[in-house]
Design goal:
The complex is a heterodimer of chains A (67) and B (430).
Chain A (H helix, E strand, L loop, with lengths): L36 H4 L8 H18 L1
Chain B lengths: L1 H29 L4 H7 L4 E10 L5 E12 L5 E7 L5 H17 L6 E6 L8 H15 L8 E5 L5 H13 L3 H4 L22 H17 L7 E5 L3 H12 L3 E7 L2 E4 L6 H10 L11 E3 L11 E4 L8 H4 L6 E3 L8 H10 L2 E3 L1 H4 L2 H15 L5 H26 L3 H20 L4
Parallel strand pairs in B: 3-4, 3-5, 6-7, 6-10, 10-11, 11-12
Antiparallel strand pairs in B: 1-2, 2-4, 7-8, 8-9
Helix pairs in contact in B: 1-3, 1-15, 3-15, 4-5, 7-8, 7-13, 7-14, 13-14, 14-15
The chains are: A mainly alpha (67), B alpha/beta (430).
Chain lengths: 67, 430
């Protein structure tokens, strides 16, 4: 595959099958971007403001207070 | 071979900076910007590069490179995202920092522009390592960031969790009496850790609002108007959600997995639920038929919301566009040639710098709440966002009319004139 030196597509999980653009060599922001880590390493990058929910935020807050 | 590769990398980064500079120069020429102020705005104020060691899970130490570029702070503290990606370097940070200066200025926020991040591929690190990397980077940045100096926010590969780590680390470096006065050192925090209600939908709601303001101004009723959306992430979904509530009909959506179409309407809620359950892909949604990707922008509709990535509307597909309004939810979705074609055809374009500014305005509200010890309800946040965006939209429309320029040029003129005014009034030290 063509090297994507200056593009966030280089680490996007959709890079192989993405139908949005063929010019993947200079993308610096994309709402569809999902880092491959989401598949590989678990929850870190699946944690969004939306998906985390009130309970998650509360737990996180408690951890911060304890620290 | 190595030299060739480096040259290509540099060209790409230069391209990004050139785009930002071209838009700046265009507006600066029109307003005949004071040459001395042009000199100031053409360069960044501060550029910080930090190398910091972090112990990995296997006991070995790795040294990382982090960046923070602070372009301009004549209107207030620097503001901009932190991204974790292999492409992060000083040139990319410069271009994106400059872009933030124009954006915050246009939105009449008391902020300047900044950008930064760490050059790494998060895939290679565990969550514990990423936490240590984030905390060590925050420590390395030290007092180069601060709630009244430079306020980072999430960007590519960083999120509410990353901001919570930065906040916790930054606060830990302060004396106990000062700690709680530093909550606003970052925005985009989890709600329980000082984040704001409504921050998740702020950009998409902003896109919707600018469309609504445009419709009011043109005396167009949004009810039954057909719209299509490229990108069904946070921005695309929330913009669709609010447009649908206004009576408009979502007829087509395109994302990384493909394009779908239903002339009778696609339910944004149902599509969002399907996408969430389907690895964030819309392809295969039963409420619509699949569509050739190349046919997407040429669909018969009234409004196009490109909310995915840059350079999507080009000279190649601009001629086929039937919509009369393009609302740029993404950054730079319309290229220069396409814009010329569209403007000649009489298509209105709500420029990205205005259209997607709801996000940074939402960040400002989070910062204000932390700074004043307040917690606003969702409806309060949304009402304030509407007021702020209305102000920006009206000034762009008025400037476009008075100067006989398109909305994008008008937006840049306003942003640059506001900075110029600050320098003229304050003078230059000493």
């Amino acid at each position: 595959m063509k090297k994507l030196y200056g593009s966030i597509c280089s680490t996007c999980k959709y890079v192989a099958g993405c139908t949005l653009t063929r010019a993947k060599d200079r993308v610096c922001s994309c709402s569809e971007y999902v880092h491959r880590l989401q598949q590989d390493n678990g929850p870190m990058f699946t944690l969004t403001l939306q998906s985390m929910g009130e309970k998650g935020f509360r737990n996180l807050h408690e951890e911060l207070v304890l620290n | 071979m190595i030299a060739k590769t480096q040259k290509k990398k540099n060209n790409l980064k230069q391209g990004m900076l050139n785009n930002v500079m071209r838009q700046f120069d265009n507006a600066a020429d029109i307003i005949d910007l004071n040459p001395n102020i042009r000199k100031i705005l053409e360069v960044t104020n501060n550029e910080l590069v930090v190398h910091f060691p972090v112990r990995m899970d296997n006991g070995e130490v790795e040294v990382f490179t982090g960046y923070r570029v602070q372009h301009n702070n004549s209107l207030g503290p620097y503001k901009g995202g932190l991204r974790y990606h292999p492409t992060v370097d000083i040139d990319a940070a410069r271009a994106l920092a400059m872009w933030m200066t124009w954006k915050t200025s246009l939105a009449r926020l008391p902020y300047g522009g900044a950008k930064g991040g760490i050059q790494l591929d998060p895939k290679k690190y565990s969550q514990a390592e990423l936490e240590r990397i984030t905390r060590r980077f925050t420590y390395a940045l030290g007092d180069n960031i601060g709630p009244e100096l430079d306020i980072p926010a999430p960007d590519v590969n960083t999120n509410a969790q990353t901001m919570a780590w930065i906040l916790d680390t930054y606060m830990s470096t302060k004396s106990p009496t000062e700690r709680s006065t530093n909550m606003h050192v970052v925005t985009g925090k989890p709600i329980g850790a000082g984040g704001s209600e409504g921050r998740d939908r702020a950009t998409g709601y902003g896109v919707f609002l600018t469309i609504k303001f445009w419709a009011e101004q043109k005396k167009v009723d949004l009810k039954d108007k057909k719209f299509i959306v490229q990108g069904f992430g946070n921005v695309g979904y929330w913009a669709s959600h609010f447009l649908e509530k206004e009576g408009a009909i979502l007829t087509a959506v395109q994302d990384a997995s493909g394009s779908i179409y239903n002339e009778n309407g696609i339910s944004a809620e149902q599509l969002w639920a399907y996408s969430e359950a389907n690895n964030r892909n819309i392809n295969g949604f039963s409420g619509a038929n699949s569509l050739e990707n190349g046919d997407f922008f040429g669909l018969d509709c009234d409004i196009i919301v490109p909310a995915a990535l840059g350079n999507q509307i080009t000279a190649k597909n601009a001629k086929k566009i039937k919509a009369y309004l393009i609302a740029e939810g993404a950054n730079g979705p319309t290229d220069v040639e396409a814009e010329e074609i569209l403007l000649k055809k009489g298509v209105d374009i709500i420029p990205d710098i205005l259209c997607n500014s709801g996000g940074v305005i939402g960040s400002y509200f989070e910062w204000l709440q932390n700074r004043n010890g307040e917690i606003w309800q969702l409806d309060e946040v949304m009402a304030k966002l509407e007021k702020k965006l209305k102000e920006s939209f009206t000034s762009v429309v008025d400037t476009a009319k008075n100067r006989n320029v398109d909305m994008r040029t008008a937006a840049f003129i306003i942003a640059i004139e506001r900075l110029e005014q600050a320098y003229v009034q304050r003078g230059i030290f000493p």
